[in-house]
Specification:
mainly beta
């Protein structure tokens, strides 16, 4: 009888150890967020300071290629675009066919996760360049190329190969030459470096896969 109980106890211990090992392995797999990801998304984009009274919030969209060599640190290259309308109370625009302003750009960014879990909050920062194409006739507005520094935060979910990413970001503009009619609003950073007081904010939801 005693030998039977001992054998049963040993069997239970072996099964428990096996279950614990399997659970540990599954946990490690579930928290592995490394790999190459491809995301497509859209959202809302708008402006601040004097630009806010001139340009209404519009549709934002983009494509992002990301690489996470670790569960925490990620690198991104992406295309970003947006279409916006002039605020009719602030800008006298004519001959508009479709959106008044179309923005096409690219950016590179680094993301840093605050946890190493499947649902991962993170912060990001980088550098970008955008081409503004003004399609309406509006005094003081013209096509221009503007650099920017994006900073933001987001929440990323990885479920197997599926990835969802919600992000909000603010873009510090090097200048606002596409809106030359607005009062000068550069922030002097010393030397020849300046930022525009008017910036660009964006909130997007991105969906895709991680391989």
């Amino acid at each position: 009888m005693g030998k039977g109980l001992l054998a049963g106890a040993v069997a239970v211990s072996v099964l428990a150890a096996g279950s614990a090992h399997a659970a540990s392995t599954e946990l490690r797999r579930s928290t592995n967020t490394r790999g190459l990801s491809f995301l497509v998304g859209g959202g809302v984009e708008g402006y601040t300071d004097a630009l806010r009274s001139q340009i209404d919030p519009g549709l934002s969209y983009g494509v992002t290629l990301g690489l996470k060599p670790t569960n925490v640190v990620g690198l991104e290259l992406g295309y970003t675009g947006a279409v916006s309308e002039f605020n009719s109370d602030g800008v006298l625009a004519t001959n508009a066919d479709g959106p008044d302003i179309v923005r096409n750009g690219a950016q590179a960014a680094v993301t840093v996760g605050l946890t190493a879990t499947r649902l991962q909050p993170y912060v990001m920062g980088g550098v970008g360049l955008s081409r503004y194409n003004v399609r309406a006739i509006a005094p003081g507005f013209s096509d221009d190329t503007v650099g920017n520094v994006p900073v933001g935060a987001g929440l990323r979910l990885n479920l197997g190969g599926f990835t969802a990413d919600a992000r909000v970001a603010y873009n510090f503009l090097f200048d606002q030459g596409f809106a030359a009619s607005l009062p000068a609003s550069d922030v002097d950073l010393g030397g020849d470096e300046t930022f525009s007081k008017g910036g660009r904010y964006v909130g997007t939801l991105n969906l895709g896969a991680t391989f």
